């Protein structure tokens, strides 16, 4: 564990962070970080950040986490099962990415050792293990699907829902851009330099064409992710979990949690129709469609996103 305090130069506020803590939930171990105004959680509104497929908690940028603290949240970001420093499920049978996609294309059942239901239960387990009865939940990409599932399965545990660059699982929606999907599922080299350069290429392909691309930041983050532990089989299991979960749209009609849907109009991995479908499915949901945003979280948008998350959560 590494605890630090830093002064935000724009607001002269001390931000306390604790990096690399661990918690036991749902019979698994999860690595997590916290950002808050006080050394211990409890002063701000609890906000749990759920990341997407194969992505570690560090893909929630520190700067965005600090912006959320500035708006009154205690922020917790964590590695999902099968990612980073959390429990790897390597004892489970693993369908390959191509096997899962082929089954989906043939209309066959996708074999998955776990689904988004289990990952939603993980999220709730972490919330409870850290001492909260409920929390605000914000998810990106697969994390948005997990957050939606928390709202469906555990409505009493979620105070507000934010679904970013995500979708409903509705099979009628258009698929990912073929080039972007190919970039995401292409095997990465198994050395740190090759992995980092592969990440630079992937994020250039799936990222936001309307905003600055910080290649050095992507490379540095990829190196850190590699050192913490990457799991190609974990990626495969998470993809199977997504594909096996099916269409959430009917169930989302029952969600009464205050909901914000954020999507980029330039997202090639999860087309904008995914965000539109999510907002249409959840009663009274707000849709924020951002011009030029792709499948990432550009620095130029951090304040806008943080303001919207705060507004959705209430004051």
- Structural class based on helices, strands and sheet pairing: alpha/beta
Q: Note the total helix count.
A: 11
Average pLDDT value? 94
**CATH A-level architecture:** 3-Layer(aba) Sandwich
Strand content: 15-25%
Tally the structural domains: 1
CATH class assignment:
Alpha Beta
Instruction: Output the CATH topology.
Output: Rossmann fold
Give keywords.
single chain, 315 residues, 9 strands, 38% helix, globular
SSE blueprint:
Elements: E1 2-8, E2 13-25, E3 28-36, E4 45-50, H1 62-70, E5 73-78, H2 97-105, H3 116-129, E6 135-140, H4 142-153, E7 158-164, H5 178-185, H6 192-206, H7 215-228, H8 232-245, H9 249-252, E8 259-264, H10 272-281, E9 286-290, H11 302-313
Parallel strand pairs: 4-5, 4-6, 6-7, 7-8, 8-9
Antiparallel strand pairs: 1-2, 2-3, 3-5
Any overview of this molecule?
It is a single chain. This protein is of the alpha/beta class. The chain has a single domain (2-313), classed as Rossmann fold (3-Layer(aba) Sandwich), CATH 3.40.50.1820. It is built from eleven helices and nine strands. A nine-stranded mixed beta sheet has the order 1-2-3-5-4-6-7-8-9, sandwiched between helices. Strand 6 (135-140), helix 4 (142-153) and strand 7 form a beta-alpha-beta unit. Helix 1 (62-70) packs across helix 11 (302-313) and helix 2 packs parallel to helix 8.
Quick recap of the structure?
The protein is α/β, with parallel strands linked by helices. The protein has 11 helices and 9 strands.
């Amino acid at each position: 564990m590494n605890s630090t305090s830093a002064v935000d130069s724009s607001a002269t506020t001390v931000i306390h962070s604790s990096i690399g803590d661990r918690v036991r939930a749902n019979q698994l171990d999860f690595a997590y970080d916290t950002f808050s105004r006080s050394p211990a959680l409890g002063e701000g509104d609890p906000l749990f950040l759920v990341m997407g497929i194969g992505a570690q908690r560090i893909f929630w940028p520190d700067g965005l986490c600090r912006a959320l603290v500035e708006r009154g949240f205690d922020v917790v970001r964590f590695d999902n099962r099968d990612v980073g420093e959390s429990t790897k499920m390597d004892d489970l049978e693993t369908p390959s990415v191509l096997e899962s996609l082929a089954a989906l294309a043939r209309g066959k059942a996708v074999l998955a050792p776990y689904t988004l239901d289990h990952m939603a239960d993980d999220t709730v387990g972490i919330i409870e293990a850290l001492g909260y009865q409920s929390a605000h939940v914000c998810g990106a990409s697969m994390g948005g699907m997990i957050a939606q599932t928390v709202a469906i399965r555990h409505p009493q545990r979620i105070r507000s829902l934010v679904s970013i660059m995500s979708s409903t699982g509705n099979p009628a929606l258009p698929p990912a851009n073929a080039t972007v999907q190919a970039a995401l599922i292409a095997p990465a080299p198994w050395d740190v330099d090759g992995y980092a350069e592969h990440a630079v290429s992937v994020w250039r392909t799936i990222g936001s064409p309307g905003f600055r691309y910080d290649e050095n930041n992507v490379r540095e983050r990829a190196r850190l992710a590699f050192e913490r532990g990457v799991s190609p089989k974990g990626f495969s299991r998470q993809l199977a979990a997504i594909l096996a979960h099916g269409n959430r749209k009917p169930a989302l009609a029952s969600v009464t949690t205050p909901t914000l849907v954020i999507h980029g109009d330039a997202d090639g991995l999860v087309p904008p129709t995914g965000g539109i479908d999510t907002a249409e499915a959840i009663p009274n949901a707000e849709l924020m469609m951002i011009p030029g945003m792709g499948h990432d979280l550009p620095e130029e948008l951090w304040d806008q996103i943080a303001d919207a998350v705060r507004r959705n959560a209430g004051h």
